[in-house]
Amino acid sequence: AHDVVRHPAGELAIDGLSVQQLAEEFGSPLFVLSEADFRRRAREFRNAFDEAFAELGGGVDVYYAGKSFLCTEVARWVMDEGLRLDTCSGGELLVAQRAGVPGVKLGLHGNNKSDAEIRRALDLGVGRIVADSLPEIQRIESIAAASGRIAKVMLRLTPGVHAHTHEFIATAHEDQKFGLSLAGSDGPSPAEQAVLAATAAEHIELLGIHCHIGSQIFESEGFAVAAQRLLGFSAKMKSRHGVELGELDLGGGYGIAYTEADNPRPTAEIAREMAAVVAEECTRLALPAPRISIEPGRAIVGPSTFTLYRVGTVKTVVVDGAAGPAERRYLSVDGGMSDNPRPVLYDADYSAVLANRASSAAPVLSRVVGKHCESGDIVVRDAYLPGDVRAGDLLAVPATGAYCWVLASNYNYLPRPAVVAVRDGAARVIVRAETEEDLLSRDPGA
Ligand code: LLP
Predict the structure, then answer these.
(1) Interval between CA 109 and ligand 1 midpoint (Å)
(2) Are residues 264 and 362 in the same domain?
(3) What's this model's pTM, rounded to 2 decimal places?
């Protein structure tokens, strides 16, 4: 977050609050989220895309992807900043409902939505359900018919773009579970069949088409190719069937910096590039410009948060280095893969800094590890941290806002940490820490 500064005495502070104070008051590990930073990024997406697409004659709807991090407080900030909210389960819909988010501002995703989830979405009057498969279109139709409602539907298509990111977070190539393929070996493609099914369904209003090519993406080429393929598909549907697909959602996936090696491009630049591609394609295909929507999650919440850990055990081992035997120091902290499984899941890189004091000790190659009973329980694989880091020190790991707390587990019966939001020199809990009693409360024999 931009509002983290180091005090002259050497301690990190965010919005005037020292990390020592935060750890003492709220415990550790602790997710510390800057409200101002979150809001700034949310606003930046809205403004940048609105401006870039202004010439095409329409606003842009920015749906914050709640899967990246969600609680009622964050849902309210998202509404305050004029964004909408993308959900992908009944649970996320419930958070939105409790936060008072108007149904029209909500979207529902998912490749295997239950009937109950579809019903909840329709009862809330969601602005759109993004249908993922042909059978789902039939289910939406019959649930909407039974409740006498009209479901607003987008179709999730797979444009066949292979985004350069980790295999498990790339989502638009053919051989994976999401979406309706644009490629048909014989006869109409699944995407075309879906357009026909949705337009024929009496209780479905087909709004448009959607794609999401993956996550933590830096090159804009993938987005551009996806936009071209979807617009090409729109033109085909118009000429073949007279169907106008008025909305085009280009998904989320904008990459952020986890370490100094990552170089994300400014949001405004990406927006301008996407607007240029859409404008050019629409002219070429003689298509009216569609209404655009996007679904960023990570790029809004990721950088707004850091995790505070307290160091416990310190040990040094001798390893084979490129230039002969070298030392590596292991710094064990009081959390780990249960509050941030991303290093284990995706080989994700993070960085760490000594947070509670300054040190002039020479940096030492260190590995920050958790307290779980697995040797793969790594928080930061390689970090150069001062040689005098000791038990009791605090480490801050930046950029843990997205896909950390929401992916957290109770492995080894560790309670999940609290999330505190800081704003104007005050911190408040927006999700409290679990207690051991919370965990035991689901065990009837405990
Ligand atoms: N829209 C759809 C349909 C999505 O599936 C996703 C993310 C997003 C938007 C938001 O993408 P973002 O802007 O946050 O990249 N757990 C993985 C990431 C999974 C992303 C799932 N879908 C990770 O920690 O890297």
Answers:
(1) 11
(2) no
(3) 0.96
